[in-house]
Amino acid sequence: MSDKESDINIKASIEAILFATGTAVEATRLMAAIGSEEEPVSKKEFNAAVDELMQEYEAEDRGIRLIELDGKYQLCTKNDYYDVLAKIVNMPRKHSLTDVILETLSIVAYKQPVTRAEIEKIRGVSSSHAVNKLIEYNLICEVGRLDAPGHPILFGTTDDFLRCFGISSMDELPDISPEKIEDFRKQAEAEAGIEVPT
What we know:
This protein has helices at about 5-20, 25-35, 45-55, 80-90, 100-110, 115-125, 130-135, 160-165, 180-190; strands at about 25, 65-70, 70-75, 115, 140-145, 155. The radius of gyration is 21 Å and the shape is globular. Helix 5 (about 100-110) crosses helix 7. By secondary structure, the chain is α+β, with helices and mostly antiparallel strands.
């Protein structure tokens, strides 16, 4: 089998698996499913096939795209076609993220894994409603329990979080500059009427 035929087979196999599952699948699982013990798929071959598929799907005449979510891959509809799909499919309602919910989500994203009590300590107010909404929207989920009295739930972000914000991994979150942190500290001091130690 020539290299080109092998690439087409790998690409077609990736496409078939992702289309059939409809969910994000780990690269290692895809490689294991496509290859065999006698002829395993190399990381280089797999990455080349994924890169080609991504480029092909980015063409203007394609309605789907291949995205990476923290080492997993998924086929999804391009955002441009949401309105067209909504006319045919009973699409879920787009969730509205209020400032409170976004603030809570950003704490989870940057501090994960994090407990509800830690979120509330940072925010200074009860965060039960915001946490529950984020779980309902599948942007955060339970990732474990803290080894402490009461074993509080630890929360982290989901693949849907990555998908919704258009990033492949948590490494793509923007860094918060020291100047911005200082601005936040001054704002918190002004709102609370106290001085926050540095």
